Amino acid sequence: MGETTARRRLQAVDVYRGLALVAMAAYHLCWDLNYYGLINVGIGVDPVWITAQRAILTAFLLLAGAGLTLAHGEGIAWRGFWRREAMLVAAAAAVSAGTWFLFGDDLAYFGVLHMIALGSLLCLPLVGAPLWAGAAVAALALGLPAVFSSDAFDPRWLNWIGLFRVTPETADLVPVFPWLGVMLLGMLGMRVLRGTPAFGWSSGSRAVRGLALLGRWSLVVYLVHQPILFGIVTPIANWRQSAEQAKLESFTQSCTASCLAGKGKAEGAGGPQFCTAYCRCALDMTVEHDLWSASPTELKDMSALCTAMSE
User: What is the DSSP string of 158-196?
Assistant: First the structure.
């Protein structure tokens, strides 16, 4: 995301972008595991996870803005710009289509790629403007959502602007306000810091070259990493679900057989109807309170309670 021309490519920028990709993939792996119930973490609600997600997003948008300076700071290369825009729009459409397939109406209709594509258009007029002009627009974009919002921007066809009051239900939303300001900061920051040690270093180590390679192919990596992760996690989740279902069925069958053998098969309190209710209660309590390795006292208490509830 935010590819620069080969003749102006800085290894440091590619490495930073590669690090952002690694962080993004790690975050999405945790998201996928949480989605399938393989782990239980507060992605989307826990402040730590929300902060991590926004930090990764900030890194990508800063780098996208920096890429505009590197590619067009000495004059806009229109052919390269429109080629990149076409790739971003096509990739954004693919993300929307893929998330619609997975999540239906909660699709990502204006995610990070949509923002970079539109933000690149909005930032381009300022790529050679005085620094104060870009800084003023960045401050406006960053600060406006904090001081103004309206329910007029709540409909989906307008909430991509970012001035909504009700947070939309969507797999991903990166609205123009405040995130345009982040792209502008990246563009302005590269104008100021280009040539400094932060961006002028290079290395021949394998790790650094590997990260730089990821950074050079960032758009491709962004598009394929989630299908790959889903392809890995989904079979594991299906196996886990099948194993869990088999465990529950085995518990029910064993409990029912034991109950019928102990109580007799006559209709009434000790018959099949009682045993079905008793074993359903036992299974619910075992799952809810994780009593798979319960002590004899816990089992006795559960049995007494389920017997009373089933008679």
Answer: HHTTS--SSPP--S-B--HHHHHHHHHHHHHHHHHHTTS
Q: Are 121 and 85 in contact (CB under 8 A)?
A: yes
Specify burial of residue 283 (Cβ count, 10 A radius: 0-12, 13-18, 19+). Answer: middle
pLDDT digits (tens, 9 = 90+) for 112-128: 999 999 999 999 999 99
Global pTM reads 0.81
For residue 133, give both structure tokens: 């002009």
Q: Which two tokens stand for residue 135?
A: 């800084």
Tokens of 105: 């109406």
pLDDT tens-digit map of 219-271: 999 999 999 999 999 999 999 888 888 888 888 888 888 888 775 443 445 57
The pLDDT assigned to 267 comes to 41
The rounded distance, in Å, linking the Cα atoms of 295 and 162 is 55
306 Cβ contact partners less than 8 Å away, ≥ 6 residues apart: 278, 281, 282, 285
**In whole angstroms, what is the distance from residue 218 CA to residue 56 CA?**
14
